[in-house]
Amino acid sequence: GHDCCETVKVALCASREGHPVLVVAEESFQFVQDEAYDAAQFLATCAGNQQALNFTRFLDRSRPPAADVDFLDEKVALAFRHLKLPAEWNVLGADQSLTENIPRETLMHFAVRLGLLRLTWFLLQQPGGRGALNIHNNEGATPVSLALERGYQKLHQLLTEEGAGEPDSWSTLSHTVHSGDYSVKHHRGLDVYLLTAEA
Fold this sequence. Notes:
One of its GO terms (molecular function) is MAP-kinase scaffold activity. The chain has a three-stranded antiparallel β-sheet with strand order 3-4-5, with no helix packed on it. A two-stranded antiparallel ribbon has the order 1-2. By secondary structure, the protein is an alpha+beta fold. It has two domains: about 5-35 and about 170-195, no CATH class; about 35-160, Serine Threonine Protein Phosphatase 5, Tetratricopeptide repeat. It has eight helices and five strands; from the N terminus they run E-E-H-H-H-H-H-H-H-H-E-E-E. The relative contact order is 0.10. It is elongated.
């Protein structure tokens, strides 16, 4: 998960109480733009854009195999998670004057229609995420009714249970904490802290 295409220098450090921090190894890596990054950028910018969201419905006609959906879900959700979204970004788009009574397609409909569990969980945590659950599209379906109609039990549970936790496969990850040009992430599974400085 990385939010821009650039070369970064990575240093592996070790520390013990009472001893100076020791740099064990250093290496540079080139991050490149991939399909997941492109998809996350596209989805983030088309929140509320009905023409773009209606265009995404063609994906539904050729449903990929479950393994491909799982791979797509993980990659796009991770890319989304690491985008620097503007402070005013909303799952429902920029036009907050629209009421819940106006039928329209939302990012939540898109994620649920394809069975993207992790992306749906991410969107639920964002501004407008919970509000999107009550919006009907032009066929009269809400994200909740779509999940039920398609037999996505875990997804339906995620959307209807109060305080539903994040998907299991993400239990070792944590959100990055940004502060100016610095960010810190704790990888719980490895008990490793990553400090990133913008240079």
